[in-house]
Design a protein that fits this description.
Layout (H helix, E strand, L loop, with lengths): L2 H22 L19 H8 L6 E5 H4 L7 H4 L6 E5 L6 E5 L14 E4 L2 E2 L17 E8 L13 E7 L8 E8 L3 E11 L3 E12 L8 E15 L2 E15 L6 H6 L6 H6 L2 E17 L2 E17 L3 E21 L2 E23 L7 E24 L4 E20 L8 E18 L2 E12 L3 H4 L9 E14 L2 E20 L6 E21 L11 E18 L1 E2 L2 E2 L11 E11 L3 E10 L16 E10 L5 E8 L7 E4 L13 E3 L4 E9 L1
Parallel strand pairs: 4-7
Antiparallel strand pairs: 1-6, 2-3, 4-5, 6-7, 8-9, 8-33, 9-10, 10-11, 11-12, 12-13, 13-14, 14-15, 15-16, 16-17, 17-18, 18-19, 19-20, 20-21, 21-22, 22-23, 23-24, 24-27, 25-26, 27-28, 28-29, 29-30, 30-33, 31-32
């Protein structure tokens, strides 16, 4: 059965289930937002309390924050999240999603971050993840652990973890219709409904989006269905089933030179037009999570399986079909030890994935039609991870944290057809321990924290199959200090980190062949500052009810990523900046807020210095400053609405860039133009 038939079938099934639920689930309970009756999905306040226990950079993103305006790309979702760099390639789902320099050279199919839905990983078994599998309109809130701070959730990567916490029939017990329209024929609609009774709840969400895009050959059409059904057979015992179905169709406009971008930023790369380059993606995912609370002990068990179909005509036609399976269990025990509060978390995660990856040529040099098969690979990835973390309360407000992750990973590739050489057939195995020690001090409205943590990431298939093969796992040791708190009318969150990496996985794009190759850089460092602030300029205290507020909110992300010791092809990279990101990314807004839900004010994005495009540091992108304006009203009852203008000065800029080894200072086609001036509006109705 073709995947779009599966998606259609899933949609019809959910619609019938929704109709049945209105008849069978009994009285609908209408409750305040973010309340939770479910052990499997904690409330927003529960998550905020839990993440504050982490002695490192964390954040809880309430969906109400990004639903004040257009909510289409990851840049919209994480606009005010310090440390999270989300740069869309061309106003699309795909983006460079990076935390502390993780996978910083990927502008598609990310890596270096564990992406989860309600604590269940959605990454493929080799570590990669697809932005198309995410739908911010279907979540209640998002948990973010920056860097090596997600150890207690089994994530050992440099970038940390992002957990999308689903709406349920308890947290979204109404019918909701949200629509957005705007420039370049942008249209996006979400229809959702939640039902609940004393022991069961059901949530169903369907989102459809289409847009022509600011650039030529950038049309997108997406359909996403997210649903979950929970059954609590006892007060503290519940199981929840998840169904996700995604169909995504995207044209790829490609990269331009700087002069092409300045002259005509809407144009597409000629090669992308010639080959009709695209990324068409289908996904079907089923999952289950069961939680059992017994006094001070909580057990969670989960399992998931996903089926992905990718048709990707670029320099060749990539045709991949993947099946991935996940199973895991964790426990949390809270009690006293030696008359001190103590919390232990431990768990195990098993993942296994198989991919059938074929590549085809084109019929002719000027054709976009698929030709003969050039190669055919069978790929297998498996992982076994175990983790444990202990938090022990000490005297005078201090809490000590000690933890460890142990991992065993396998990456195997077998070429069934095509040129076979030692780089194409391999069976790689990795074993690693990643420890963590941290200290937290809690005062009244103030918290200081520090930690030293290990991180670890074996290469994905995108790294190990390339010409300059990366065979070693990337490891790092990170030191971090920070402070967060709230006082009167001021809130802040500040973290500073320094990571020493060995064998960093650095993908290099060859500008001639347009093929990515990857090497293990011997020694590199990542260092940075992440700071988020929120200030009421009218002096209204945050713990008091205020009729009017004038709030300045900002997120500053600074990163310095550098080669310390690496030589290749007769060139010494030591001291060079690692290409991919500008040093500073600043996003901010000044918003008037009224207690009746009204808001209005300007927004901005500022990149004061361009970032290097090549590792030899001969070519940089340009700085830019974008300003926008937003006005609207958001309420729990009735109609919410917004009007938003972006890039009001119509500034030509590169939203992100490619990364290559050596540009020779020439104007190479590695610039991905950002959107010009755009106008958007939206409305949301609850009933």
């Amino acid at each position: 059965m073709r995947k779009h038939h599966i998606i259609l079938f899933a949609g019809v099934t959910l619609a019938l289930a929704a109709q049945e639920s209105t008849q069978d689930l009994g009285p609908v309970l209408v409750e305040a937002k973010n309340t939770s009756k479910t052990p499997t999905v904690p409330s927003l306040e529960q998550s905020r309390k839990e993440l504050k226990k982490t002695p490192g950079g964390t954040e809880v993103v309430d969906a109400d924050r990004y639903l004040l305006g257009r909510s289409s790309t990851l840049a919209d979702t994480f606009a005010l999240s310090p440390g999270v760099v989300a740069q869309p390639r061309f106003g699309s789902d795909e983006a460079r999603l990076s935390i502390r320099g993780s996978g910083l050279q990927r502008t598609f199919h990310g890596r270096g971050i564990r992406i989860m839905q309600d604590g269940i990983p959605i990454n493929l078994a080799d570590g990669g993840f697809d932005m198309q599998a995410l739908e911010p309109n279907a979540v209640d809130y998002i948990n973010v652990w920056r860097g090596a701070n997600a150890l207690a959730y089994g994530a050992s990567t440099l970038g940390g973890a992002i957990d999308f916490i689903s709406n349920t029939g308890h947290t979204s017990p109404k019918t909701r219709w949200r629509s957005e329209v705007g420039s370049w024929n942008y249209a996006r609609s979400t229809l959702s409904h939640g039902w609940s009774d004393a022991s069961r709840d059901l949530y169903v969400s369907a989102t459809a989006q289409q847009q022509d895009g600011f650039r030529d050959h950038a049309r997108q059409e997406n359909l996403r269905i997210f649903s979950n059904f929970g059954w609590a057979w006892e007060e503290n015992q519940e199981t929840r089933f998840y169904l996700t179905a995604v169909q995504s169709r995207s044209e790829l406009p490609g990269s331009l030179t700087r002069s092409q971008m300045i002259d005509s930023p809407r144009r597409a790369n000629a090669a992308n037009l010639l080959r009709d380059q695209r990324r068409d993606f289908d996904l079907l995912r089923l999952a289950n999570k069961t939680a059992i609370r017994n006094g001070n002990l909580t057990w969670e068990m989960f399992a998931a399986m996903s089926f992905k179909d990718l048709n990707h005509p670029i320099f060749q036609v990539l045709d991949q079909r993947s099946q991935d399976f996940t199973a895991g269990a964790s426990m949390v025990h809270q009690d006293e030890w030696m008359n001190r509060e103590n919390q232990i978390k431990a768990g195990i995660l098993l993942t296994h994935g198989v991919t059938h990856a074929a590549q085809f040529g084109y019929v002719s040099p000027t054709s976009s039609q698929r030709g003969l098969m050039l190669q055919d690979d069978d790929q297998m990835a498996s992982n076994a991870e175990a983790f444990i973390e202990d938090q022990l309360t000490l005297d005078h407000g201090f809490t000590a944290v000690l933890g460890m992750i142990a991992s065993h990973n396998q990456r195997k590739n077998t070429r069934e057809f095509g040129s076979v050489n030692p780089t194409t057939n391999y069976d790689l195995r990795y074993d690693q321990l990643a420890p963590k020690i941290g200290l937290r001090w809690d005062g009244k409205g103030l918290q200081f924290f520090a930690n030293v943590s290990g991180s670890y990431e074996p290469p994905s298939f995108s790294e190990t199959i390339t010409a300059n093969t990366a065979r070693n796992a990337q490891t790092a040791t990170t030191g971090e200090v920070g402070v967060r708190g709230e006082h009167a009318f001021y809130r802040w969150d500040l973290a500073m980190y320094h990571s020493q990496l060995e064998d960093e996985l650095l993908a290099i794009l060859d500008p001639t062949t347009n093929l990515s190759t990857t090497t293990n850089a011997k020694k590199t460092t990542h260092a940075g500052i992440e700071m988020g602030t929120e200030i009421d300029l009218l002096g209204q205290f945050w713990d008091e009810t205020a009729r009017n507020r004038l709030v300045f909110a900002s997120a500053w992300t600074y990163g310095r990523f550098r080669f310390e010791d690496h030589r290749a092809s007769g060139y010494d990279y030591s001291g060079n900046r690692i290409a991919g990101l500008p040093p500073h990314l600043i996003r901010a807004e000044l918003m008037w807020r009224h207690s009746d839900g009204y808001y209005a004010g300007p927004t901005c994005e500022w990149v004061p210095q361009g970032g290097y495009i090549d590792h030899r540091n001969t070519l940089k992108s340009d700085p830019y400053f974008l300003i926008g304006f937003r006005i609207g009203r958001r309420t729990e009852q009735g109609i919410s609405w917004f009007l938003e203008a972006r890039n009001l000065t119509d500034e030509v800029h590169a939203a992100t860039t490619g990364v290559i080894d050596h540009a020779n200072g020439a104007d190479v086609a590695q610039f991905l133009p950002g959107d010009g001036m755009g106008l958007f509006s939206g409305w949301e109705i609850h009933w």
